[in-house]
Structures
1.
Amino acid sequence: MTAQPPAVPIQGTTRLYAVLGDPVAQVQAPALINPLLAALHRDAVVVPVHARPSHLETVVRGLRHVRNLDGMFVTVPHKVAVRHLADRCGTTVDIVGSANVLRREADGGWLAENFDGSGFVAGLVAAGHDPKGSRVALVGTGGAGSAVAAALLAAGADRLHLYDTDAAKLDALAARLDAHWPGRVHAMNGPRPGDVDIAVNATPLGLTAHDPLPFPLEQLPPGCVVADIIMKPRETRLLREAAARGHRVHHGIHMLEGQLNSYRDFFDLR
């Protein structure tokens, strides 16, 4: 068994990072990043902050005045909304329209970035599922899904089929992506992935045990990789049923694991 680094005691000098979400019981960032901070001997801690959508602006504006708070990680359902509360945005945020991390700048303003997509692709590649040249279907074009869509195209996916129950959101994302990767993005008229190499759930369906499947599995070809971005539970209903059908499955936690180096660079955690 690998020894875990000792926990850094929380004291008056401790720097803070918040994880904003609704709910927050499922967030995995504290469990992955706090051991990293301890190993680096950083006097810092990541804590979950449960913020309702109606209170998000108040929370973000208020946290600006917490002088020992250096940044925020952002999860469901705030990734699109928080982008509009940032003072400056990285290029990826401008393309996908969502952010999953905010960093306090020297002037006190928030810089927004999104590493969901790059983290997801890094996780895929590490697991042996390189999307280059592949046909991919992605259901759910919210904050994380939009970032994953862009990253898959940037990684060389040959065709990307998208679906969302919100037709306006779907069409807007498809148009933004087509401006950068013309001819490779196709909107589906229903959550029905067909002959694809990778099928991705980027919806919240699977957070609870009684959720329906985000898309049917019957038409997926043998050998198709079925991926979920949900991190907790690890084994969503989608992944259990896909594995039972003989598909290779890819767990949501790999997306966060794939982001760790990006977080280290973004927050200068050395």
Note: The first strand starts at residue 15 and ends at 21.
2.
Amino acid sequence: MPPVTIKDVARAAGVSPKTVSRVMNAEAHVRPAVRDHVLRVVAELDYRPNAYARSLSSSRSYLIGLFFDDPASGYAADVQIGAMARCRHHGYHLIVERIDRGGSGALDEVSRMVQALQLAGVILTPPICDWAELTDLLDQRGIPVVKLNASRTDTSAAVIHIDDYQAARDMTDHLIALGHRDIAFVQGIASHDAAGKRLAGFSDAMHCAGIRVRDGWVQSGDFSFRSGMAAGDAILSTDDRPSAVFAANDEMALGVLVSAARRNIAVPGALSVVGFDDAPISRMAWPQLTTIHQPNAVLASAAIDILTDPSYRQADDRAARSVQVPYTFIARSSSGPA
């Protein structure tokens, strides 16, 4: 069956193709009754306009950029799923790009890319969402930006996040309720806002329970599996080891699991290991990880809704806004009694 065209929608709605185009482009000077009628016909016919064709026929772009530092991670996969589905709903296309903050000339490369693509908006993910120079560059270009789990809200970019601090406290309280007192923590990138909040939530929960965090039991990581395994090696290599390890994301928690397996430390019998994010690997690991479900697809979907909102595209209306999405504690078999 051939795809529905703009002429098919116009014929069914009893209007001109130009009117349908104005409705789809959210242009002014279309009567509300006509707009509602056309949108109903669009929904009934499941019309999906081609983003590239729309860009060529108007001054607006229908391409949204999704920028990662590591698009192959489990976190990135969830974000892409949510963003792609919502882009399709709004008639936009998603372009995924890896941004290497450490590379020479990275900002110049981004500048050339956004100029060539004429993006309608950009989603920035951790940790590059906290890269001030990148946010400022996009702001200067007049490109609307939404940041996921970022700390910097003094620009025109919206921020969508969960309560990382309280979620980390909940996870730590879970371990304490199981009888654990010797608890180690694997931190994410120190400069990343969410990583700092997760460490603060862990530390405050321990303090409120009257439990001292031992020296050497807070190890630095960078959210990667490799850094989690290195942290696990550092924490578990001594005879005086903890009874539980809380890693600031699931990939690092998986690294700790591997480190424990190499030392024949049973999980959860001799060591509880918990993570954060509820990435797909948390369910593939053995044992499956107790974790915090961060609804990454929902965060991405909300970001697309903001970027496709006509009012948000107006620079004067893009005052800093913050949207908090609920998280869920997920208890699985990687945590048990001390």
Note: The chain has three domains: 6-49, 63-161+295-307, 164-293.
